[in-house]
């Protein structure tokens, strides 16, 4: 049985639902924040994800990063040594989608010597009437940036676990690929 530890950074504009997504995932759906609370710096939570068809697991150290530009210098210190990246946007807020490239560039700049698996998260999909960014637009952007695409609603507990489980499995896969390379050298 192998227990891996991975640092997962969640970035995106303020108010896109990063904290709600993290809290709902961490609490297995029992905690959804009813009121908005500004994240200052980063909030860290830890959750273990079991890898299917193995006895292995990945402990995700989830860094929910502040989205306000005011804190951009402060949060940079939390971004170093990131193993996994999530960039989130609100499907009802075009500005948050347009900012995804900026957030992704910042995340990748913090890990310049490694390729880091990532996911683009379309949040607040329960706001169907107010949606301005289509799934097609999200998927195209994700594909162009080598990200996996997910849509979710923390409020309705829809598809919240999927991006976390996907990234944990990617991290596990990379670990085993590196292990095989090391074995082949001996």
UniProtKB/TrEMBL annotation:
UniProt keywords (A-Z) are:
Cell projection, Cilium, Flagellum, GTP-binding, Nucleotide-binding
Q: What's a single GO MF annotation on this record?
A: GTP binding
- Tell where it localizes: Cell projection, Cilium, Flagellum
Check the record and name the Pfam families matching this protein. Answer: Ras
Can the keyword GTP-binding be found in this entry's annotation? yes
Q: Name one GO cellular component term.
A: motile cilium
- List the SUPFAM superfamilies hit by this protein, alphabetically: P-loop containing nucleoside triphosphate hydrolases
User: Source organism's superkingdom?
Assistant: Eukaryota
Output the NCBIfam families linked to this UniProt entry.
small_GTP (TIGR00231)
- Similarity annotation: Belongs to the small GTPase superfamily. Rab family.
Q: Which named protein is this?
A: Intraflagellar transport protein 27 homolog
| The organism of origin for this protein | Actinia tenebrosa
């Amino acid at each position: 049985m192998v227990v891996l530890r991975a640092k997962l950074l969640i970035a995106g504009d303020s108010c896109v639902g990063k904290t709600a997504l993290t809290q709902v995932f961490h609490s297995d759906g029992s905690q959804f924040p009813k009121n908005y609370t500004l994240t200052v710096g980063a909030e860290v939570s830890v959750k273990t994800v079991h890898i299917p068809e193995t006895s292995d697991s990945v402990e995700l150290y989830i860094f929910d990063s502040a989205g306000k530009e005011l804190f951009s210098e402060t949060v940079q210190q939390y971004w170093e040594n990131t193993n996994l990246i999530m960039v989130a946007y609100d499907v009802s807020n075009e500005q948050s989608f347009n900012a995804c490239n900026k957030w992704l560039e910042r995340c990748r700049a913090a890990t310049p010597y490694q390729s880091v698996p990532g996911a683009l998260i379309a949040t607040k999909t329960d706001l169907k009437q107010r949606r301005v960014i289509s799934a097609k637009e999200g998927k195209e952007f994700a594909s162009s940036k080598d990200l996996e695409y997910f849509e979710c609603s923390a409020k309705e507990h829809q598809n919240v676990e999927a991006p976390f489980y996907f990234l944990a499995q990617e991290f596990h896969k990379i670990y085993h690929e590196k292990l095989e390379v090391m074995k082949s050298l001996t």
